[in-house]
Amino acid sequence: MFVSITCTSPDATDLGYLLHKHPDRVRTVRVGTGKAHVFYPEATEERCTATLMVEVDPIALSRGPKGRGRGQRQPAASLEPYVNDRPYAASSFLSVALGKLYRSALIGNCEAKPELVEKQLDLQIGVPVVAARGGEDTVRRLFEPLGWNVSCTPLPLDSQFDSWGDSSYVTLGLSGQQLLKNALAHLFVLLPVLDARKHYWIDETEIDKLLRHGGAWLPAHPDREFITRRYLRFPTLTREALGRLSEGPEDADASDERNDHGEAQYERPLSLNEQRHDAVIGAVQSTGGGAVADLGCGEGQLVERLIAEPSVTKILGIDVSLSALARAERRIRLDEMSERRRDQISLVQGALTYTDDRLLGFDIAAVVEVIEHLDAERLDVFDRVVFGHAAPPVVIVTTPNVEYNVHFENLAAGTFRHGDHRFEWTRAEFANWAETIKDTYGYTASFHAIGPDDPETGPPTQMAVFRKAATT
């Protein structure tokens, strides 16, 4: 089985930088019961193609997992383990290989040319044989809402016997302008959805995988329930995933668990969560990086971005929710990291209204969409904990701009974007709070717009970068 990705944008060989695979070399790794290879059939400035081919070992596959007890292989109840489509049709085997060989591209990391990550490319994707349960209609309803032009050709059961009709397999072609990381995420999630069965055990870690790779596009997909149900298979996992999707990615950075739908329904069209993280990473880079504490880290979306940032040397994620921290640990795959890498990353439980010596010694503190979830009368305690006790040289704070709320048509006048918000500030109120921090703790602040900056209402999200004034 294989999938080919072709770029026809100018400087098409930039595809190699994004995939972290050199066109002059063949890259091979072991995946489960076989091997996966990446090679380039063509690589010119006008057209560049990277092909991922997966070779499944049918003997190892037929043996299956070891049985219980004395470790003996369990006998097959039918010929299915020996005669099946697994070595030939795109399925979860191909999805796993995509995740392993293209992991950096999938999470949006390109050290050589970081500007390419957010560049729309002219892409063509070809998968010769896809196990498509539901046929062409299902293929189109999955990929077309994501902006793809879909070519789907059913494969006959036997080309010599037309009367037998078509099989449940198709040849899939996709074309369109996409970010490469999004294109890979679409394949990673939707190929197993089309196949409707996986070759590995499904548990709650699959929810995190689905949200990690589908969080940017799945909440707005018209068939998100169908996708979630097929990807997870079990009703209990499906219900939990749909609940978390309804909360929206914006809520993952708050410091407590909430179960209403919240601001996601308003902010999602603006992709504000991603823009916030981009802005915070940019601020981390511009202030020199170093040791960073993510205060109110939630499910670890910003932590994941910080791990991929070369200027960051140490990371602390702190949150009041143990379940959110467990999801963050799974998101960043902490247990798969080397011991040296794990020593650089800590996820701990804590509240931002109590002094905590674990916050000492960091170069930067990031507080992303957190303060508005605190009671206004307790903000002075938060100020004392972060700016007084921890006192890092740089503090980055983002919070909603209430003036922008008039642009959200479905948000009733006088209400907040999220039911758990205790307040939402105007730009002047945010500036007044920053002035208080300056007078009390000796920080200066610069202000930055996140999202479309309306000339009258300002941006949907406002960010302040506080710097500790030098003492003499």
Task: Provide a brief overview of the structure.
The chain has 472 residues and is of the alpha/beta class.
> According to CATH, what is the topology of the largest domain?
Rossmann fold
Q: What structural category characterises the helix and strand content? A: alpha/beta
**Mean pLDDT across all residues, rounded?**
85
How many structurally independent domains?
Answer: 3
Contiguous low-pLDDT stretches (5 residues minimum) are 65-79, 248-261
CATH superfamily of the largest domain: Vaccinia Virus protein VP39
Order of helices and strands: EHEEEHHHEHEEHHHHHHEHEHHEEHEHEE
Oligomer: single chain
From the spread of the alpha carbons, the general shape counts as: elongated
Helix content range: 25-40%
Distance from first to last alpha carbon: 67 Å
The top level CATH class name of the largest domain = Alpha Beta
Q: At CATH's second level, what is the architecture of the largest domain?
A: 3-Layer(aba) Sandwich
The number of helices is: 16
Rg value? 24 Å
Q: Please state how the strands of the largest beta sheet are arranged side by side.
A: 2-3-4-1-5-7-6
Total number of beta strands: 14
Strand portion: 15-25%
